[in-house]
Fold this protein.
Amino acid sequence: MSTARQLLRVRVTAKDAETLRTLLREARPDVGGRPRQGEDGTCSIEAYASPDEAEALEREGVSVTIVEDATATGRARQAEVGEGDRFAPDDAVPRGLALKVKDA
């Protein structure tokens, strides 16, 4: 059982740039990228937060939209990674502390 907390990638949208700056100064979320300004004057930025942190970011003039479950995406990407060293020669002798086990 994993003890890792769930991490979400969220889009934080504020009614204006000053509201977003105030939020970022107070809450200090882990942001990714730069803020973007919409045609309607809103400002948004993507951030990484736990579900509780994401909920705490919402306030008057600020909305939070879940983009993806970053924890699940990360686990899916890790499952794509192969085992072993594909660059090692076939007759390579393992080094270091380990148990010698015969493959079945």
